[in-house]
Amino acid sequence: MKPFKNLSISFFYFFVSTLIFISLLAYAARFDIKNNCNITIWAAATPGGGRQINPGGTWSLEVTPNSSSTSGRIWARTMCSFNGSGVGKCQTGDCGGLFHCQGGGSAPCTLAEFALNQFGNLDFYDISLVDGFNVPMVFNSTSPKCSGIDCTGDLNGNCPTELKAPGGCYNPCTVFKTEEYCCTGVDCKATNYSMFLKGGCPGAYSFPLDDKLSTYTCPSGSNYNVVFCPLGSL
Ligand SMILES: *[C@@H]1O[C@H](CO)[C@@H](O)[C@H](O)[C@H]1NC(C)=O
Ligand SMILES: *[C@@H]1O[C@H](CO)[C@@H](O)[C@H](O)[C@H]1NC(C)=O
Ligand SMILES: *[C@@H]1O[C@H](CO)[C@@H](O)[C@H](O)[C@H]1NC(C)=O
Ligand SMILES: *[C@@H]1O[C@H](CO)[C@@H](O)[C@H](O)[C@H]1NC(C)=O
Ligand SMILES: *[C@@H]1O[C@H](CO)[C@@H](O)[C@H](O)[C@H]1NC(C)=O
């Protein structure tokens, strides 16, 4: 009986791990990242690394959540140059000089953020300007039933002088580093600067404790579009 019993136990484990594998795949998401700008963008993603996307090009990125990692972010890097080992730098969104990003990008950069398969079998997603703004973006689901987020205002052209950065516009926290702008204190409200950022990017997080309306949900297993410069040019 013993060999038979061992066999059935290993079959049981095979069956369970296959089920877990299939259920994780069911929560995978594809992000179609499109560069609609008239300049080259070095898209960055964690997880995912990086990809050079010429004007009009796309990068189809699959993200499969696992027990230790369900969330991620996607952003644009501009004016990059890298050597043959993938080491160099970008004017905005640089991630420690690496072509294949392993951590976050430096400010200013418009961020698409997501967390897959959270409670209620929902994906959560948002656009954050907490690290400022570099490139206009639309972040939506391929399903028209889920809300899209538009961040298409001219926040570079209209950026207040105090926040101007080469190739972008900083969040006031990055520049002034005060409680009021960084929300390190308990009381944290919108400011004239966060209202300026929100004006060009109505669905985005404009300061760290921005309202709950800035987070969107879609059923797990959905796929998404991240479009840089949805209105064309930059
Ligand atoms: C989970 O996913 C992350 C991001 O894709 C990856 O870096 C990590 O190695 C994965 N961990 C396991 C245990 O598979
Ligand atoms: C790329 O630059 C890095 C850092 O300066 C250097 O360590 C590496 O050898 C360079 N690779 C090539 C192929 O030039
Ligand atoms: C998502 O946004 C892009 C760019 O604005 C648009 O072309 C596409 O139709 C939108 N998709 C949905 C499902 O709304
Ligand atoms: C925003 O408010 C600060 C502090 O009250 C002020 O110094 C600054 O001029 C204002 N900036 C804009 C663009 O309104
Ligand atoms: C991109 O479009 C902007 C705005 O129309 C224009 O000023 C700029 O010269 C264009 N850049 C290129 C590389 O075509």
From TrEMBL:
Residue pairs linked by disulfide bridges in the UniProt entry: C37-C229, C80-C90, C95-C101, C146-C218, C151-C201, C159-C169, C173-C182, C183-C188
Give the originating organism.
Castanea mollissima
Family that this chain belongs to: Belongs to the thaumatin family.
Keywords assigned by UniProt, alphabetized: Disulfide bond, Membrane, Transmembrane, Transmembrane helix
- Record's Pfam families? Thaumatin
Question: Does this UniProt record's set of keywords contain RNA-binding?
Answer: no
Highest taxon listed in the record's lineage: Eukaryota
Q: Which residues cross the membrane?
A: 7-29
Q: Which PROSITE patterns match?
A: THAUMATIN_1 (PS00316), THAUMATIN_2 (PS51367)
Against InterPro entries, the record matches this protein to: Osmotin/thaumatin-like_sf (IPR037176), Thaumatin (IPR001938), Thaumatin_CS (IPR017949)
Name the UniProt record assigns to this protein: Thaumatin-like protein
